[in-house]
Protein backbone atom coordinates (compact mmCIF):
# COMPACT_ATOMS: atom_id res chain seq x y z
CA UNK A 1 0.00 0.00 0.00
CA UNK A 2 1.32 3.45 -0.91
CA UNK A 3 2.12 5.66 2.06
CA UNK A 4 1.06 9.28 1.75
CA UNK A 5 3.00 11.93 3.63
CA UNK A 6 0.72 14.75 4.68
CA UNK A 7 0.87 17.74 6.96
CA UNK A 8 -2.15 19.42 8.44
CA UNK A 9 -1.38 22.75 6.80
CA UNK A 10 -2.96 26.16 7.11
CA UNK A 11 -2.10 27.88 3.83
CA UNK A 12 -1.69 31.59 3.43
CA UNK A 13 -4.70 33.31 1.92
CA UNK A 14 -3.52 34.90 -1.33
CA UNK A 15 -6.91 36.13 -2.59
CA UNK A 16 -9.99 37.61 -0.94
CA UNK A 17 -12.04 34.93 -2.71
CA UNK A 18 -10.02 31.98 -1.43
CA UNK A 19 -12.37 31.32 1.49
CA UNK A 20 -15.26 30.94 -0.97
CA UNK A 21 -13.53 28.33 -3.11
CA UNK A 22 -15.56 25.40 -1.79
CA UNK A 23 -18.95 27.11 -1.96
CA UNK A 24 -21.21 26.01 -4.83
CA UNK A 25 -22.09 28.72 -7.33
CA UNK A 26 -25.10 29.05 -9.56
CA UNK A 27 -23.32 31.42 -11.93
CA UNK A 28 -20.55 33.91 -11.30
CA UNK A 29 -22.25 37.11 -10.27
CA UNK A 30 -19.00 39.10 -10.23
CA UNK A 31 -16.03 40.02 -12.40
CA UNK A 32 -13.60 37.12 -11.98
CA UNK A 33 -10.70 35.67 -13.98
CA UNK A 34 -12.71 32.67 -15.16
CA UNK A 35 -14.10 31.83 -18.59
CA UNK A 36 -17.41 33.41 -17.63
CA UNK A 37 -15.98 36.92 -17.27
CA UNK A 38 -12.39 37.36 -18.42
CA UNK A 39 -12.65 36.88 -22.22
CA UNK A 40 -15.11 39.78 -22.55
CA UNK A 41 -13.39 42.04 -20.02
CA UNK A 42 -10.95 44.89 -20.30
CA UNK A 43 -7.95 45.19 -17.99
CA UNK A 44 -4.83 47.37 -17.85
CA UNK A 45 -2.03 46.02 -20.04
CA UNK A 46 1.73 46.19 -19.60
CA UNK A 47 3.53 45.14 -22.78
CA UNK A 48 7.17 44.21 -22.26
CA UNK A 49 10.09 44.35 -24.65
CA UNK A 50 10.55 40.82 -26.00
CA UNK A 51 14.33 40.80 -26.39
CA UNK A 52 15.88 43.14 -23.85
CA UNK A 53 19.47 43.88 -24.76
CA UNK A 54 21.92 45.47 -22.38
CA UNK A 55 20.04 48.73 -21.75
CA UNK A 56 21.45 52.09 -22.64
CA UNK A 57 20.91 54.99 -20.23
CA UNK A 58 17.95 56.08 -22.32
CA UNK A 59 16.44 52.59 -22.27
CA UNK A 60 17.04 52.23 -18.54
CA UNK A 61 14.98 55.35 -17.87
CA UNK A 62 12.00 53.88 -19.69
CA UNK A 63 12.23 50.35 -18.30
CA UNK A 64 12.25 51.65 -14.73
CA UNK A 65 8.66 52.67 -15.34
CA UNK A 66 7.62 49.03 -14.95
CA UNK A 67 8.44 49.05 -11.23
CA UNK A 68 6.88 52.50 -10.84
CA UNK A 69 3.67 51.38 -12.54
CA UNK A 70 3.48 48.13 -10.58
CA UNK A 71 4.03 49.80 -7.22
CA UNK A 72 1.62 52.62 -8.05
CA UNK A 73 -1.10 50.11 -8.97
CA UNK A 74 -0.30 48.06 -5.86
CA UNK A 75 -0.62 51.12 -3.62
CA UNK A 76 -3.94 51.99 -5.26
CA UNK A 77 -5.27 48.55 -4.26
CA UNK A 78 -4.06 49.26 -0.74
CA UNK A 79 -6.08 52.48 -0.58
CA UNK A 80 -9.13 50.44 -1.62
CA UNK A 81 -8.66 48.12 1.37
CA UNK A 82 -8.04 44.94 -0.62
CA UNK A 83 -5.23 43.65 1.62
CA UNK A 84 -5.80 41.67 4.80
CA UNK A 85 -3.33 43.78 6.76
CA UNK A 86 -0.92 46.69 6.28
CA UNK A 87 2.44 45.08 5.54
CA UNK A 88 4.15 48.48 5.57
CA UNK A 89 3.48 48.62 9.32
CA UNK A 90 5.38 45.38 9.96
CA UNK A 91 8.64 45.71 11.88
CA UNK A 92 11.71 44.72 9.85
CA UNK A 93 15.40 44.60 10.75
CA UNK A 94 18.73 43.38 9.45
CA UNK A 95 20.16 40.78 11.82
CA UNK A 96 23.81 41.49 12.72
CA UNK A 97 26.13 38.88 11.29
CA UNK A 98 28.20 37.80 8.34
CA UNK A 99 25.32 37.52 5.86
CA UNK A 100 22.83 40.06 7.19
CA UNK A 101 19.64 37.99 7.30
CA UNK A 102 16.51 40.15 7.13
CA UNK A 103 13.83 39.45 9.75
CA UNK A 104 10.26 40.68 9.60
CA UNK A 105 7.60 40.45 12.30
CA UNK A 106 4.28 39.72 10.59
CA UNK A 107 1.87 38.59 13.29
CA UNK A 108 -1.17 39.04 11.05
CA UNK A 109 -0.13 36.65 8.31
CA UNK A 110 -1.12 33.45 10.13
CA UNK A 111 -4.65 34.69 10.88
CA UNK A 112 -7.84 34.14 8.82
CA UNK A 113 -6.62 31.05 7.02
CA UNK A 114 -8.57 28.16 5.58
CA UNK A 115 -7.40 24.74 6.87
CA UNK A 116 -6.65 22.11 4.27
CA UNK A 117 -4.98 18.73 3.95
CA UNK A 118 -1.83 19.37 1.97
CA UNK A 119 0.04 16.46 0.45
CA UNK A 120 3.79 17.05 0.52
CA UNK A 121 5.22 13.91 -1.05
CA UNK A 122 4.22 14.73 -4.64
CA UNK A 123 5.81 17.66 -6.46
CA UNK A 124 3.53 17.16 -9.46
CA UNK A 125 -0.19 16.94 -8.77
CA UNK A 126 -3.07 17.41 -11.22
CA UNK A 127 -4.94 20.68 -11.31
CA UNK A 128 -8.16 20.42 -9.30
CA UNK A 129 -10.82 22.94 -10.44
CA UNK A 130 -12.83 22.26 -7.28
CA UNK A 131 -10.11 23.79 -5.10
CA UNK A 132 -9.16 27.44 -4.96
CA UNK A 133 -7.36 28.63 -8.08
CA UNK A 134 -6.69 32.00 -9.63
CA UNK A 135 -9.63 31.92 -12.04
CA UNK A 136 -11.72 32.62 -8.92
CA UNK A 137 -9.87 35.86 -8.18
CA UNK A 138 -11.84 39.08 -8.61
CA UNK A 139 -10.62 41.42 -11.32
CA UNK A 140 -10.16 44.22 -8.78
CA UNK A 141 -7.15 42.25 -7.46
CA UNK A 142 -5.48 42.29 -10.90
CA UNK A 143 -2.93 45.03 -11.59
CA UNK A 144 -2.52 44.39 -15.31
CA UNK A 145 -2.04 41.90 -18.09
CA UNK A 146 1.63 41.18 -18.84
CA UNK A 147 2.18 40.45 -22.52
CA UNK A 148 4.86 40.52 -25.19
CA UNK A 149 5.08 43.96 -26.78
CA UNK A 150 7.63 43.07 -29.45
CA UNK A 151 10.26 45.77 -29.82
CA UNK A 152 8.65 48.22 -27.39
CA UNK A 153 7.45 48.46 -23.81
CA UNK A 154 4.25 50.36 -23.09
CA UNK A 155 1.33 50.55 -20.66
CA UNK A 156 -2.39 50.91 -21.39
CA UNK A 157 -4.86 51.75 -18.65
CA UNK A 158 -7.65 49.80 -20.31
CA UNK A 159 -7.26 47.11 -22.95
CA UNK A 160 -9.26 44.11 -24.13
CA UNK A 161 -7.90 40.66 -23.42
CA UNK A 162 -5.08 40.54 -25.93
CA UNK A 163 -5.76 37.39 -27.93
CA UNK A 164 -8.87 35.28 -28.24
CA UNK A 165 -6.82 32.16 -29.00
CA UNK A 166 -4.42 32.54 -26.08
CA UNK A 167 -4.99 32.77 -22.33
CA UNK A 168 -3.62 36.02 -20.87
CA UNK A 169 -0.80 36.37 -18.37
CA UNK A 170 -1.90 38.47 -15.41
CA UNK A 171 -0.24 40.16 -12.45
CA UNK A 172 -2.37 40.23 -9.30
CA UNK A 173 -1.84 41.34 -5.71
CA UNK A 174 -1.17 38.85 -2.95
CA UNK A 175 -3.75 39.93 -0.36
CA UNK A 176 -1.53 38.46 2.40
CA UNK A 177 1.67 40.24 1.37
CA UNK A 178 5.11 39.44 2.70
CA UNK A 179 6.56 42.75 1.57
CA UNK A 180 5.87 46.02 -0.21
CA UNK A 181 4.67 45.43 -3.77
CA UNK A 182 4.05 41.69 -3.25
CA UNK A 183 2.37 40.36 -6.41
CA UNK A 184 1.67 37.12 -8.24
CA UNK A 185 2.58 36.50 -11.88
CA UNK A 186 0.05 34.00 -13.23
CA UNK A 187 0.97 32.70 -16.70
CA UNK A 188 -1.93 31.87 -19.06
CA UNK A 189 -4.44 32.01 -16.26
CA UNK A 190 -7.33 30.43 -18.19
CA UNK A 191 -5.22 27.40 -19.14
CA UNK A 192 -5.39 26.29 -15.48
CA UNK A 193 -1.83 25.02 -15.40
CA UNK A 194 -0.76 23.17 -12.24
CA UNK A 195 2.23 24.40 -10.25
CA UNK A 196 5.01 23.10 -12.46
CA UNK A 197 7.73 24.88 -14.42
CA UNK A 198 7.70 24.83 -18.22
CA UNK A 199 10.18 26.67 -20.50
CA UNK A 200 7.69 29.24 -21.78
CA UNK A 201 6.41 30.26 -18.35
CA UNK A 202 9.90 30.41 -16.88
CA UNK A 203 11.03 32.67 -19.72
CA UNK A 204 8.05 34.91 -18.95
CA UNK A 205 9.24 35.25 -15.34
CA UNK A 206 12.74 36.19 -16.53
CA UNK A 207 11.23 38.73 -18.90
CA UNK A 208 9.39 40.36 -16.00
CA UNK A 209 12.63 40.56 -14.01
CA UNK A 210 14.45 42.02 -17.02
CA UNK A 211 11.67 44.54 -17.62
CA UNK A 212 11.84 45.67 -13.99
CA UNK A 213 15.57 46.42 -14.42
CA UNK A 214 16.00 46.76 -10.66
CA UNK A 215 18.19 44.67 -8.33
CA UNK A 216 15.57 45.14 -5.61
CA UNK A 217 12.67 43.58 -7.54
CA UNK A 218 12.94 39.80 -7.39
CA UNK A 219 10.76 36.87 -8.42
CA UNK A 220 10.45 33.58 -6.59
CA UNK A 221 8.96 30.17 -7.24
CA UNK A 222 7.97 27.39 -4.83
CA UNK A 223 7.17 23.90 -6.06
CA UNK A 224 4.61 21.71 -4.37
CA UNK A 225 6.38 20.02 -1.48
CA UNK A 226 8.49 23.18 -1.07
CA UNK A 227 5.67 25.32 0.39
CA UNK A 228 3.65 26.33 -2.63
CA UNK A 229 0.12 26.60 -1.21
CA UNK A 230 -1.88 26.89 -4.45
CA UNK A 231 -1.67 24.27 -7.21
CA UNK A 232 -2.14 26.79 -10.02
CA UNK A 233 1.00 27.97 -11.81
CA UNK A 234 2.30 31.21 -10.36
CA UNK A 235 5.45 33.10 -9.46
CA UNK A 236 5.72 35.61 -6.63
CA UNK A 237 7.54 38.94 -6.70
CA UNK A 238 8.10 41.95 -4.48
CA UNK A 239 10.34 44.96 -3.93
CA UNK A 240 12.84 45.12 -1.05
CA UNK A 241 15.63 47.68 -1.18
CA UNK A 242 18.37 45.67 0.55
CA UNK A 243 20.54 42.82 -0.76
CA UNK A 244 19.33 39.32 0.08
CA UNK A 245 21.86 37.30 2.10
CA UNK A 246 22.04 34.62 -0.60
CA UNK A 247 23.00 37.30 -3.13
CA UNK A 248 26.02 38.15 -0.97
CA UNK A 249 27.05 34.54 -0.31
CA UNK A 250 30.30 33.19 -1.74
CA UNK A 251 30.10 30.88 -4.75
CA UNK A 252 32.39 28.41 -6.49
CA UNK A 253 32.23 28.39 -10.29
CA UNK A 254 31.90 24.91 -11.78
CA UNK A 255 34.06 24.61 -14.93
CA UNK A 256 32.10 23.42 -17.93
CA UNK A 257 33.25 21.84 -21.17
CA UNK A 258 33.84 24.07 -24.18
CA UNK A 259 30.77 22.76 -26.01
CA UNK A 260 28.58 23.44 -22.98
CA UNK A 261 29.86 27.01 -22.76
CA UNK A 262 28.42 27.93 -26.17
CA UNK A 263 25.15 29.05 -24.58
CA UNK A 264 27.05 31.51 -22.41
CA UNK A 265 25.46 30.14 -19.21
CA UNK A 266 27.74 29.63 -16.22
CA UNK A 267 26.95 27.55 -13.14
CA UNK A 268 28.27 27.93 -9.60
CA UNK A 269 27.42 26.41 -6.26
CA UNK A 270 26.90 28.30 -3.04
CA UNK A 271 29.68 28.19 -0.46
CA UNK A 272 29.28 28.83 3.27
CA UNK A 273 25.51 29.24 3.08
CA UNK A 274 23.07 27.14 5.15
CA UNK A 275 21.17 25.81 2.12
CA UNK A 276 23.05 24.11 -0.69
CA UNK A 277 22.11 25.49 -4.07
CA UNK A 278 23.17 26.21 -7.64
CA UNK A 279 23.59 29.64 -9.21
CA UNK A 280 22.98 30.08 -12.96
CA UNK A 281 24.18 33.26 -14.68
CA UNK A 282 24.82 34.75 -18.09
CA UNK A 283 23.55 33.29 -21.32
CA UNK A 284 23.91 34.74 -24.80
CA UNK A 285 20.20 35.53 -24.64
CA UNK A 286 17.56 35.48 -21.93
CA UNK A 287 16.14 32.40 -23.62
CA UNK A 288 19.48 30.56 -23.24
CA UNK A 289 19.40 31.09 -19.49
CA UNK A 290 15.70 30.20 -19.26
CA UNK A 291 16.25 26.97 -21.20
CA UNK A 292 19.06 25.72 -18.95
CA UNK A 293 17.32 26.57 -15.68
CA UNK A 294 13.87 25.34 -16.73
CA UNK A 295 15.41 22.04 -17.89
CA UNK A 296 16.94 21.69 -14.43
CA UNK A 297 13.61 22.44 -12.75
CA UNK A 298 11.77 19.99 -14.99
CA UNK A 299 14.14 17.19 -13.98
CA UNK A 300 13.58 18.00 -10.30
CA UNK A 301 9.79 18.02 -10.53
CA UNK A 302 9.64 14.96 -12.79
CA UNK A 303 11.75 13.09 -10.22
CA UNK A 304 9.75 14.31 -7.23
CA UNK A 305 12.43 16.56 -5.72
CA UNK A 306 10.87 19.69 -4.13
CA UNK A 307 12.65 22.93 -4.99
CA UNK A 308 12.61 26.71 -4.81
CA UNK A 309 13.88 29.29 -7.31
CA UNK A 310 14.99 32.89 -6.80
CA UNK A 311 15.23 35.14 -9.89
CA UNK A 312 17.67 37.91 -9.04
CA UNK A 313 19.66 40.74 -10.63
CA UNK A 314 17.04 41.67 -13.23
CA UNK A 315 16.82 38.08 -14.46
CA UNK A 316 20.55 37.64 -14.95
CA UNK A 317 21.15 35.46 -11.87
CA UNK A 318 19.05 32.45 -10.87
CA UNK A 319 19.35 30.51 -7.60
CA UNK A 320 18.03 26.93 -7.54
CA UNK A 321 17.49 25.16 -4.21
CA UNK A 322 16.46 21.49 -4.04
CA UNK A 323 15.04 21.04 -0.53
CA UNK A 324 13.66 18.49 1.92
CA UNK A 325 12.16 20.41 4.88
CA UNK A 326 8.53 19.39 4.32
CA UNK A 327 9.56 15.75 3.99
CA UNK A 328 11.49 15.94 7.27
CA UNK A 329 8.51 17.68 8.86
CA UNK A 330 6.10 14.96 7.74
CA UNK A 331 8.44 12.26 9.03
CA UNK A 332 8.76 13.95 12.43
CA UNK A 333 12.44 14.79 11.94
CA UNK A 334 12.17 18.55 12.60
CA UNK A 335 12.60 19.70 16.20
CA UNK A 336 9.59 21.02 18.07
CA UNK A 337 11.51 24.24 18.68
CA UNK A 338 11.61 24.96 14.94
CA UNK A 339 8.03 23.80 14.39
CA UNK A 340 6.82 26.20 17.08
CA UNK A 341 8.11 29.16 15.06
CA UNK A 342 5.47 28.33 12.39
CA UNK A 343 7.98 29.36 9.73
CA UNK A 344 7.68 27.47 6.46
CA UNK A 345 11.04 27.97 4.71
CA UNK A 346 10.04 28.74 1.13
CA UNK A 347 11.98 30.78 -1.44
CA UNK A 348 12.02 34.08 0.47
CA UNK A 349 13.11 32.52 3.75
CA UNK A 350 15.78 30.43 2.01
CA UNK A 351 17.06 33.58 0.32
CA UNK A 352 17.45 35.21 3.73
CA UNK A 353 14.25 37.24 4.19
CA UNK A 354 12.62 35.45 7.12
CA UNK A 355 9.04 36.24 8.10
CA UNK A 356 8.49 35.54 11.81
CA UNK A 357 5.05 35.23 13.36
CA UNK A 358 5.89 35.59 17.07
CA UNK A 359 7.36 38.71 18.67
CA UNK A 360 9.67 36.70 20.89
CA UNK A 361 11.22 34.97 17.85
CA UNK A 362 11.66 38.35 16.18
CA UNK A 363 13.28 40.03 19.17
CA UNK A 364 15.65 37.10 19.73
CA UNK A 365 16.43 36.54 16.03
CA UNK A 366 20.12 35.97 15.36
CA UNK A 367 22.28 34.65 12.57
CA UNK A 368 22.62 31.42 14.54
CA UNK A 369 18.84 30.92 14.79
CA UNK A 370 18.36 31.73 11.10
CA UNK A 371 21.15 29.33 10.17
CA UNK A 372 19.67 26.59 12.36
CA UNK A 373 16.29 26.87 10.62
CA UNK A 374 17.63 27.00 7.07
CA UNK A 375 20.13 24.18 7.58
CA UNK A 376 17.14 21.84 8.02
CA UNK A 377 16.02 22.76 4.49
CA UNK A 378 19.21 21.69 2.76
CA UNK A 379 19.94 18.37 1.13
CA UNK A 380 22.94 16.53 2.50
CA UNK A 381 26.21 17.04 0.64
CA UNK A 382 26.03 13.54 -0.83
CA UNK A 383 22.42 13.88 -1.97
CA UNK A 384 23.02 17.38 -3.34
CA UNK A 385 25.93 16.21 -5.50
CA UNK A 386 23.86 13.30 -6.76
CA UNK A 387 21.00 15.64 -7.71
CA UNK A 388 23.43 18.11 -9.28
CA UNK A 389 24.80 15.41 -11.58
CA UNK A 390 21.30 14.54 -12.79
CA UNK A 391 20.46 18.22 -13.28
CA UNK A 392 23.56 18.73 -15.41
CA UNK A 393 22.61 15.81 -17.63
CA UNK A 394 19.05 17.09 -18.03
CA UNK A 395 20.24 20.61 -18.87
CA UNK A 396 22.91 19.42 -21.32
CA UNK A 397 25.75 20.63 -19.11
CA UNK A 398 29.04 18.76 -19.04
CA UNK A 399 31.46 19.45 -16.22
CA UNK A 400 35.11 19.84 -17.21
CA UNK A 401 37.59 17.38 -15.72
CA UNK A 402 39.78 19.97 -14.02
CA UNK A 403 37.30 21.02 -11.32
CA UNK A 404 38.78 21.26 -7.87
CA UNK A 405 36.48 20.16 -5.10
CA UNK A 406 35.15 23.30 -3.43
CA UNK A 407 33.74 21.41 -0.47
CA UNK A 408 35.50 22.21 2.77
CA UNK A 409 33.76 19.54 4.77
CA UNK A 410 30.29 19.57 6.20
CA UNK A 411 30.94 21.65 9.28
CA UNK A 412 33.54 23.99 7.83
CA UNK A 413 31.54 24.97 4.77
CA UNK A 414 28.08 25.14 6.30
CA UNK A 415 28.55 26.90 9.63
CA UNK A 416 27.96 30.57 10.49
CA UNK A 417 31.07 32.66 11.07
CA UNK A 418 30.90 34.95 14.15
CA UNK A 419 31.66 38.53 13.15
CA UNK A 420 31.11 42.00 14.53
CA UNK A 421 27.62 43.46 13.96
CA UNK A 422 27.09 45.01 10.56
CA UNK A 423 27.06 48.83 10.47
CA UNK A 424 23.45 48.86 9.27
CA UNK A 425 20.60 50.54 11.07
CA UNK A 426 17.98 48.08 12.25
CA UNK A 427 15.04 50.32 11.50
CA UNK A 428 12.14 49.39 9.29
CA UNK A 429 13.26 48.67 5.74
CA UNK A 430 9.78 48.64 4.27
CA UNK A 431 9.06 51.52 1.91
CA UNK A 432 6.32 53.78 3.19
Give a quick precis of the structure.
The chain has 432 residues and is of the alpha+beta class. The protein has helices spanning 57-63, 65-79, 199-212, 245-248, 286-302, 325-330, 336-340, 347-351, 359-363, 367-375, 381-394, 410-413; strands spanning 6-9, 42-48, 91-94, 102-105, 116-119, 142-148, 154-160, 170-173, 183-186, 217-222, 235-239, 250-254, 265-271, 278-282, 307-312, 317-322, 353-356.
Give an overview in words.
GO terms for molecular function: GDP-D-glucose phosphorylase activity; guanyl-nucleotide exchange factor activity; hydrolase activity; nucleotide binding. It catalyses: GDP-alpha-D-glucose + phosphate = alpha-D-glucose 1-phosphate + GDP + H(+). Specific and highly efficient GDP-D-glucose phosphorylase regulating the levels of GDP-D-glucose in cells. The strands form three sheets. The chain has a twelve-stranded mixed sheet. It has a three-stranded mixed sheet with strand order 3-4-17. 43% of the residues are buried. It is globular. By secondary structure, it is an alpha+beta fold. 24% of the residues lie in helices and 21% in strands. It has helices at 57-63, 65-79, 199-212, 245-248, 286-302, 325-330, 336-340, 347-351, 359-363, 367-375, 381-394, 410-413; strands at residues 6-9, 42-48, 91-94, 102-105, 116-119, 142-148, 154-160, 170-173, 183-186, 217-222, 235-239, 250-254, 265-271, 278-282, 307-312, 317-322, 353-356. The termini are far apart. Residues 1-11, 22-27, 54-64, 112-117 and 407-432 have low confidence and may be disordered. Helix 3 (199-212) crosses helix 5 and helix 5 (286-302) packs across helix 11. It is built from twelve helices and 17 strands.
Amino acid sequence: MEMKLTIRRVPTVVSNYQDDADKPRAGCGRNCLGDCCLPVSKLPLYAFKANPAKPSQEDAASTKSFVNILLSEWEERMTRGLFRYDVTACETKVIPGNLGFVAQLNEGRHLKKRPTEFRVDRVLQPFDPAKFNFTKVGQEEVLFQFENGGDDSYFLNNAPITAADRAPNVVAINVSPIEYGHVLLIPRVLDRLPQRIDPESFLLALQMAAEAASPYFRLGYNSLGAFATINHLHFQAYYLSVPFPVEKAATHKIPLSEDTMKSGVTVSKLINYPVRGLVFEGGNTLNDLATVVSSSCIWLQDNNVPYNVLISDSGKRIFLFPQCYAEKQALGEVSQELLDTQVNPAVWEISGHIVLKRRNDYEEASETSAWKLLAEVSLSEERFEEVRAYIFTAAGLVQADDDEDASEGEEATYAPVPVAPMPVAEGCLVLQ
